[in-house]
Design a protein that fits this description.
Alpha-Beta Plaits, 6-stranded mixed sheet, 871 residues, 6-stranded antiparallel sheet
């Protein structure tokens, strides 16, 4: 008791308890539940959404307050809610949503099928399948080795160029360089080749594939000097190549010139239609009267089908409304001496089949149609385009020749007219067709058996080599067969697309069969579809008109094809011993963007890890861990002393002269002084243990390394920024704590101001309250700014700046790998990259017969031996 004070200081005691007393007074004040709505002052178990509609759901003491709050909020405002699922799932609304979602990114026709089974990627203005959800590359590799693997490469843009043969040949070849060996040669019609396109200044753009639909130099029976070439362009190159084509052919008109130069955009975006525009307004723009007058009677009937009262909505026509269908919607440019350039984006689907069973599966899917004239007349006259086309004896003879060539297993490119693939679907999904065990006799592929039995019969009766033969020579198909194919007629392709009957109609006919699972025969009412089958190195490419992509795709899958995505396509290219397409051109704009995108994703993944889980690249001697620094590498090798400063080159150049590369392979290095600043494309194969990955460094081995054939180990280097990084982190932590205290102090002032006003019954000082709130927001913004600055600075301190890479480790670096992965074909890791020509010449001086170099991953200290081959 002696420790207790003799008196109590009331003033200091109340001052220290003012916050508690203010809070207590705030709670017990007459105006209960401050800061809460009337509907929130009911116990939680009694709260109902129905209060917003009926105020009698509240106690009487809260009704007046609720009505006051409701009037202040605007009264009875109807709540905006999302339409019900039943409304959204109506067929018409699904079609509108299907087209609306394609405003920004172009969809493939198989997008819905892939979206259920694949990870979808957004690349080059498209939504493309990335990789399957179920299995990885191992399952796809089995498919490509023993059966068939199919890819949807319909994102390849089709550009048609028409004009005089000499004008086309000279102008197109002006975009190429003879020394690369890839030009627009006047080869046989139908033979697909590769060309390398350059800008007018000599900078590489990228690689395209092409074939001459017709060429007057090889058609002596044509009086007109008119040729047509089809060019398939990867969407990463399309903008630059279209610009160079317009410049080379001196485009005169301005049609579609004011539209977006990005031809990856759908038609609605090209015509500058606002996504908010009504469907009626879009229909007027997309279906102008001028187009209807120019189209054939078939197209006009199909376009007006929706407006007819007695006919149902044409689902296929609705899906094609955002594409260049009919063909006169496609952007067309007129240039030099009557030359016409047409962008047929989205009008042709292209499927790539690889594997030994590709030919057999194609014979099951692409069954030649019956095009003989019949006395029967179909009620659907728009389906009988083939009756007029094959009314001439010449076209009949051509069709029979194509059919015989296709049945005989000829590996030439073939233009064919086939049956509706929906009528040939097997009863259930079947595995790939097995190879025949004996030598059977040939029989007709056109049979009345069901599709599944027909595929089985084909496997037993058609004698074909299960392995795809090596390509070579000119296809045996004659020029007239190729030229007269209906596939190259835009009006016929439009007729085939717009007259396609719906899947519902096919299913209705199938449900009416007396014997379930039997063959469905529509006779003259069946669609006849023109297709192209192009021979490739490891398989075939199937080209079908727009609107038929999903029908053929489903039939291919049901007949045993395994589907792959973009990741599997790149891996398949590596298995072939070639780098992926965009990794071949680090000196092109598309190649640089691809490397930057990979570096961005890799960097984001690296810094998403906690600091103790990250690789310390500074200690491993990796100057640029995410992207190959080509300009710094070339600068380093300009002089023997890499530390001597020199100006960075303005651009990167890759050596593509075939003659020079042949000399390099045999060791002839004379006369290369002018090309010493170039990069050389190489292929590397790991020897023994180890891995190859993206951005793996390529080093020159020492003579001692070659003698012992054991890769050295990189020493752990000093991290010069470790101390600064630690100090920066500590300072940032102190700054964060200081700002957090300031924010908390301002927050307490704001609460205290409100509680004192309530406890003492004084009016709230709104001006001071606003000042405190403003200061609190400023402190919060400063804290967020400091966090962002620290994050950026921290990345710099982990990576650091560099001006040399050649001597950053124990062995001299003279190149980097851009693409690599495990190759099941060779049973080891395979990589592709580029090396400095100066470094390559130095390496050749000490290299042995095995052509070994040292490679090291960015996360390892162990050097491994790899064999190097010049591509």
């Amino acid at each position: 008791m002696d420790d207790l004070p003799k008196d109590i200081q009331i003033g200091p005691f109340l001052k220290s308890r003012v916050k508690e007393l203010s809070g207590l007074a705030y709670v017990v004040s007459s105006d209960l539940k401050h800061g809460k709505l009337a509907s929130q002052q009911v116990p939680r178990h009694m709260r109902r959404r129905a209060v917003s509609h009926d105020v009698r759901r509240l106690p009487r003491r809260l009704r007046d307050k609720y009505l006051k709050e409701k009037n202040q909020g605007g009264g009875n405002v109807p709540a905006s809610k999302r339409p019900s699922r039943r409304h959204r799932r109506r067929p018409g609304n699904l079609l509108k949503e299907y087209n609306r979602r394609q405003m920004k990114k172009f969809w493939l026709e198989t997008h819905i099928w892939h979206a259920k089974r694949f990870h979808i990627l957004e690349k080059w203005g498209y939504k493309i399948p990335g990789y399957p959800n179920d299995k990885g590359w191992r399952a796809c590799y089995r498919g490509s080795k023993s059966s068939a693997l199919v890819f949807d490469v319909s994102y390849l843009n089709l550009i048609q160029v028409q004009g005089k043969s000499d004008v086309l040949g000279s102008t197109l070849n002006s975009l190429t360089q003879n020394k690369t060996g890839k030009t627009f040669d006047a080869s046989s019609a139908g033979k697909e080749e590769t060309a390398l396109v350059f800008t007018a200044s000599g900078k590489v753009i990228g690689e395209v594939t092409y074939f001459w639909v017709s060429h007057s130099q090889v058609e002596h029976d044509k009086k007109e000097d008119n040729s047509t070439i089809w060019i398939f362009v990867h969407p990463a190159f399309i903008q630059q190549i279209m610009a160079e084509l317009k410049l080379a052919f001196k485009v005169l008109d301005t049609e579609f010139m004011n539209a977006s130069e990005d031809s990856n955009e759908p038609l609605l975006k090209k015509l500058k239609l606002d996504p908010e525009t009504s469907d009626e307004a879009k229909t007027k723009v997309l279906n102008p009267p001028s187009l209807l007058s120019e189209c054939s009677e078939i197209n006009e009937k199909s376009l007006n089908m929706e407006k007819s009262v007695n006919m149902k909505k044409n689902v296929n026509l609705e899906k094609m409304s955002t594409r260049n269908i009919p063909a006169n919607r496609a952007p067309s440019y007129h240039g030099l001496e009557g030359t016409t350039i047409t962008d047929f984006q989205g009008t042709v689907n292209r499927f790539r089949l690889v594997g030994p069973k590709s030919a057999e599966i194609l014979r099951s899917v692409c069954v030649p149609a019956d095009v003989e004239s019949s006395e029967l007349v179909s009620e659907k006259k728009d389906l009988t385009w083939w009756r007029d086309h094959y009314s001439s004896d010449k076209n009949k003879v051509n069709f029979k020749s194509e059919t015989e060539s296709f049945k005989s297993g000829n590996n030439a490119n073939i233009a064919l007219t086939v049956r509706d693939p929906r009528l040939l679907l097997p009863i259930k999904k079947c595995p790939a067709i097995k190879s025949p065990s004996s030598s059977p006799t040939k029989t007709s592929i056109m049979t009345s058996k069901p599709a599944s039995l027909e595929a089985e019969a084909a496997s037993k009766t058609i004698a074909t080599d299960p392995k795809v033969p090596e390509p070579g020579g000119v296809p045996t198909i004659t020029q007239n067969l190729w030229l007269e194919s209906p596939f190259f007629s835009a009006s016929i392709r439009d007729a085939v697309t717009l007259s396609k009957c719906s899947d519902a109609e096919i299913n209705k006919h199938r449900s009416n069969l007396l014997i379930p699972g039997s063959r469905l025969t529509l006779g003259v009412d069946e669609s006849r579809v023109p297709v192209l089958i192009l021979k490739q190195d490891t398989g075939y490419d199937l080209l079908v008109p727009a609107g038929w992509g999903m029908s053929f795709w489903q039939c291919l899958v049901f007949n045993g094809c395994r589907a792959g995505g973009d990741k599997e396509l790149q891996q398949h290219t590596i298995e072939q011993g070639k780098p992926p397409l965009l990794h071949r051109y680090p000196d092109a704009l598309a190649g640089q963007q691809e490397l930057e995108n990979i570096a961005k994703s890799t960097k984001a993944h690296h810094f998403a890890l906690p600091p103790n889980k990250r690789v310390n690249f500074a200690k491993l001697g990796i100057a640029s861990p995410f992207q190959p620094p080509w300009t710094v590498l070339v600068k380093d090798w300009r002089t023997d002393n890499s530390l001597q400063p020199s100006q960075l080159p303005e651009a990167v150049h890759v050596l593509r002269d075939e003659d020079v590369l042949k000399r390099l392979r045999v060791g002839d290095v004379k006369g290369l002084e002018v090309l010493l600043d170039h990069l050389v494309a190489v292929k590397l194969r790991i020897e023994g243990k180890g891995k190859l990955g993206e951005n793996t460094i390529i080093c020159i081995p020492s003579p001692q390394d070659l003698e012992v054939l054991e890769g050295p180990t990189e020493r752990i280097q000093e991290d010069s920024m470790e101390k600064e990084r630690k100090e920066t982190r500590e300072n940032h932590q102190l700054t964060k704590k200081r700002l957090k205290r300031q924010w908390k102090k301002l927050k307490d002032k704001e609460v205290l101001l409100k509680t004192q006003s309530s406890a003492l019954g004084k009016p709230l000082d709104q001006e001071r309250l606003n000042l405190i709130a403003s200061n609190r927001n400023i402190v919060k913004q400063i804290r967020e700014q400091k966090n962002a600055e620290f994050s950026a600075r921290n990345e710099e301190l982990w990576i650091g700046d560099f001006n040399t890479v050649r001597n950053s480790c124990k062995r001299e670096i003279f190149g980097f790998i851009t693409a690599a992965n495990m190759s099941y074909t060779i049973g080891g890791y395979l990589g592709f990259g580029f090396v400095s020509l100066r470094g390559l010449l130095k390496w050749k001086e000490i290299s042995n017969s095995k052509s070994l170099v040292l490679t090291r991953e960015t996360s390892s200290t162990q050097y491994r031996f790899s064999s190097l081959t010049i591509l």
